[in-house]
DNA sequence: CGATTTTTTGAATCATATCAACGTACGTGG
DNA sequence: CCACGTACGTTGATATGATTCAAAAAATCG
């Protein structure tokens, strides 16, 4: 079955049929994104969200000094994009690019609005997605403000084991807000236990 | 007009009438919470969310060493509670208590479900609230992983000026994940500019 | 295989935490 | 109105965890 079909029905209580899904699917535009290619560039407006069928992506902010800070990591069955820019059509503070070659489905804000009103299941999915997102970012903040580098890495491994072997350490370090050198030492220390 | 009435219509596009609001209001239970009194205790299940009419509250996590980490601050026209525990009836990792004497309106999960299905405006409000929350926590994470203590305090003042004179510095320091001593020094430095 | 990316490691440095002491402000009860 | 306690803020000295930088080692990829 199509990953997006499963994804929607996974979240919804009023399941969609395969016929429904054909209509839903027609609102999405398939695209291949090569490694390092951008879906969104900092300063631009996020015109579409991407549902990842295959591959891995990252969202990052480049500061005044040119340093990239990884804000989110994404793999299959995740949505990639900048919500603020997408919803309000404001210039994004983030870039999104492919870390691996990707296959994604793109959807515009207008399509989302249409799908939301036509398909209760789609609406429900978005709701739960938002809820889940809220909860997980909340946890991430708790970890970020209260933990040491070591604790934060442990929390990360607990919450996102599927990222650990999918992204290199320096990317994960940036995601955690610590340096790659520190992460290397933290991991070494962890292994000795 | 009632603050909650304004709040809902502020977010909704299909406004509610005053008659609608009388029904909506009937689902809420008014309560006064004295300073330092808990709405939710860590380990308990969050049975209700509080809409704050008057006063200020905080949410915090107490770690193994007994140190409190402030996770959220709330004032008038904010919702206080732990979403994860509220939605999934799991023990909460957080406590919520009153920092000032408060007047709140309590609502249960069942009432929220009923209100959501009966009043599209209420549903819409919750959606936008979630969206707004997602965006602001996202910004907070960006600030937390990429900035120095000084930058993080500046971001905080930018985003939440109304908190600055409402909560003491040691509370704000904890919210930012820095020590009260460091915050004191950061502020001193800031004044000299 | 060579080229590139990623990881490791040590040494020096820096930012922040910690601790303790003191100063200040505020509110309450006498 | 004063005296006291409590909470809050500031400050210096010191400790510590994390960063930075540079270099080398290891892994990955075409």
SSE order and pairing:
Two copies of one chain form a homodimer.
Chain A: H1 3-11, H2 18-26, E1 29-33, E2 38-40, E3 48-54, E4 57-62, E5 68-74, E6 79-80, H3 83-88, E7 95-98, E8 102-108, H4 109-118, H5 120-146, H6 149-159, H7 161-164, H8 169-176, H9 180-192
Antiparallel strand pairs in A: 1-8, 2-7, 3-6, 3-8, 4-5, 4-7
The structure holds a DNA duplex (30 and 30 nucleotides).
Detailed description of the structure:
Two copies of one chain form a homodimer. The first copy, chain A, is an alpha+beta fold. Chain A has a domain at 3-111: Jelly Rolls, CATH 2.60.120.10. Chain A is globular, with a radius of gyration of 18 Å. Chain A has helices at residues 3-11, 18-26, 83-88, 109-118, 120-146, 149-159, 161-164, 169-176, 180-192; strands at residues 29-33, 38-40, 48-54, 57-62, 68-74, 79-80, 95-98, 102-108. Chain A has nine helices and eight strands. Chain A starts with a helix and ends with a helix. In chain A, strands 1-8-3-6 form a four-stranded antiparallel sheet. Chain A has a four-stranded antiparallel sheet with strand order 2-7-4-5. In chain A, helix 1 crosses helix 5, helix 4 packs across helix 5 and helix 8 (169-176) packs across helix 9. At the A-B interface, helix 3, helix 5 and helix 8 of A face helix 3, helix 5 and helix 8 of B. Chain A binds a DNA duplex (30 and 30 nucleotides) through residues 148-149, 168-170, 178-185, 187-188.
